[in-house]
Amino acid sequence: MAKKKIVWSVRAQQDRLEILEYWINRNKSTDYSEKLFKLFKESAALISEHPEIGKPTDIAGIRIKIVRDYLMIYQEQASQIDILLIWDSRKNPEELGETIKEEI
Hints:
Keywords: Toxin-antitoxin system. The protein has helices at residues 10-27, 31-49, 96-103; strands at 5-8, 55-56, 62-67, 70-76, 80-88. It is of the alpha+beta class and 104 residues long. The protein has a single domain, classed as YaeB-like fold (2-Layer Sandwich). It has a 5-stranded mixed sheet. Helix 1 packs antiparallel against helix 2.
């Protein structure tokens, strides 16, 4: 199977930036943020090669890839993978479904 192009939504880019900035401010170091950035990048590459790797959700066509304490929410299209958002798994899970629907 050929790799599919990864497209980060504006929301997913903002989520990723906020997460990385949070850890820089909290730890007073970029070390952990750099590790997380690398994990997000590696996970996106893995999804690109194997879109079915994520866990299916109750919402048709939407899958979740776990990255540490975060959920990468994505949707497979014919020629690309849309990463819709990154969700902190420590947040209220009841809000996740509505948030995903807003991004579709």
